[in-house]
Design a protein that fits this description.
By secondary structure, this protein is mainly α. The chain is built from six helices and two strands; from the N terminus they run ααααββαα. The protein is flat, with a radius of gyration of 18 Å.
């Protein structure tokens, strides 16, 4: 087994599972709900999407050759809720993920031990990847939490629904026996 190739496969799968949680949440929400925030210090899902996408485009564009904090990124502007349509929010979301996945698919195992820079700080590529897994999972967790609060009883579970753990486990064990 080539450890670096296996790591890249695993991390791509991990990013994909995080993205799916965000996708499924955003798809459950109305345009108005995407702009809801608890108070003036809280971010709406639209703002979180804008920030995550801005971060992804900055971090993953020219990943191996330029600093991850691009000069043309306006991070402060990412926190202004100015994308009104749901379709445009989804377009922002998809743009960031595309840059990330295109970059990851272009890496090979030798790249993992290279040094890159984020805000002038050196990181091994593997370290930078792990940093971003944590960052995006954190923000997608916020998206899911807000969505769940807004939908209440109408929330469609993204994992094992309450009261269904035993049923789910039995089904998973059956699938394993068949394979």
């Amino acid at each position: 087994m080539e450890l670096g190739k296996e790591y890249l496969k695993i991390v791509i799968d991990r990013f994909q599972s995080v993205k799916i949680l965000g996708d499924k949440t955003i798809n459950q929400l109305s345009e108005q709900e995407l702009h809801w925030s608890y108070n003036s210090e809280s971010n709406s899902i639209a703002v979180i999407v804008k920030h995550v996408s801005g971060n992804m485009v900055s971090r993953w564009s020219d990943f191996l050759t330029t600093d991850g904090e691009k000069a043309d990124r306006n991070r402060e502007q990412e926190f202004i809720d100015d994308i009104s349509r749901k379709l445009d929010i989804i377009t922002y979301w998809e743009k960031g993920w595309k840059v990330l996945f295109d970059t990851l698919h272009g890496l090979d195992e030798l790249d993992l031990m290279k040094n890159i820079s984020i805000r002038g700080e050196n990181h091994l590529v593997m370290e930078a990847i792990e940093r971003q897994v944590a960052h995006y999972a954190y923000h997608v967790g916020q998206i899911v939490y807000i969505g769940k609060q807004l939908k209440g009883e109408n929330w469609k579970s993204l994992s094992i629904p309450r009261g269904k753990s035993e049923e789910y486990l039995k089904e998973m064990l059956k699938k394993q026996k068949r394979s």
